[in-house]
Amino acid sequence: MKKTILLICIVILCISCKKDDDAYEPVPNALDLELVALLENISEGQGIAYFELPSETDFANIPQDPLNPITAEKVALGQLLVHETATGGNPKMEINRGMYSCATCHPAAASFFSAVRKGISEGGSGFGIKGEGRVKMPSNLMPNDSIDALPVKVPTLLNVAYQEVALWNGSLGGAGINAPFVAQNAEDFPENLLGFQGLEVQGMIGQTAHRLKIDEEFATQFGYKPLFDAAYPEVPVSERYSSLNGALAIAAFNRTVLANQAPWQEWLRGNSNALTDKQKRGAVVFFDKGKCYECHTGPALKSNEFYAFGMGDLNLNSDISKSFRLNPTKGRGEFTGIEEDFFKFKVPTLYNLKDTPFYGHGGTFNTIQQVIEYKNNGEKENNAVPDSRLAIQFGNLNLTEADISNLTDFIENGLFDPNVARYAPESVLSGNCIPSNDAQARIDLGCD
After folding, report:
1. pTM for this prediction
2. Which helix (H) or strand (E) segment is 42 a member of?
């Protein structure tokens, strides 16, 4: 409440600055006051603080797995492991060894989204500037069914601390909302039995699914032993340089990747000029008639809920291999086995969306405005989704063209942190090119 009152005072003071025109009468900005009132109402009295992201170094206030507390040493190790192309050490084909990393599909240059519709790890070639130049290798060099490509649109790593489970269907994670379903999925996801949250399990399974190698041989060959020593001094040396500890470090780093320099975050911290009036009008739509906040809430403007909006799937007719273990077109129900959960997908964060040209779990939309118009019109893409399962917000918004324009501006620009490159290291210990190291990517990225 104190922060809310402070923001109102700052708004009045900022707007009361005298202009050259002596006839100017200072008045509070009604849009700021309206937004404050909306946030007070929908945050159950917590006010603007409910929507603030912490600093990436404020570990105490970043959501974390109690089994994997965040430390500066884990974060330092995890940052390098995410970008280290030498982790690409279990390829199907020897020519791809050391050519890819986690960041190949989650590059900082694209706000940790994939800049192509189907992310390609092993078996990809080139990079471009933000990852938009990534293509599959010619089939005479690597068969299509051996290429590691995700069967759903690659989500961002931004703000992933605010999720208990990972993947679009939430199948990774053995605690919280997944706890009741762990036993029935033990054959497909034995890692969930360890009781870690989704990001930690994703760090484990991701190494297998994406043919990464993080172990003592890797740590020794590329000089990572001192970083493992600093991150895990309490772990016996015989167990220290392991894929598990690599996964926990990756998860710790990923939790600190926060879009906390977006204009919306600046506005929440008291800078009323951080948003334009158009963006403020868009925020009013977001937190009022647009009903966006009913799914997208809290600091990350996401949630641990799953909804069906009838969006299309990524084209799976390709013979490119699929990386994960459940049918991604079936949504949450494929994991829970609950009929009502089929075709429902996890609510994503809305930050830095303009750094990707693909939206929806299938990447079937190309602009933010298209997604808003789609939800406003309520005409589903995927006829396999029963109408009874569609979210109540679908087609029930009645937004005007002005509302859509304002809302688009707020999401596209008000929620855009322009400085996420701060989360990428300048180099990795192997000396390899990052985030991709194949011949064409090295040219694209200026490594050669």
Report:
1. 0.92
2. helix 30-42
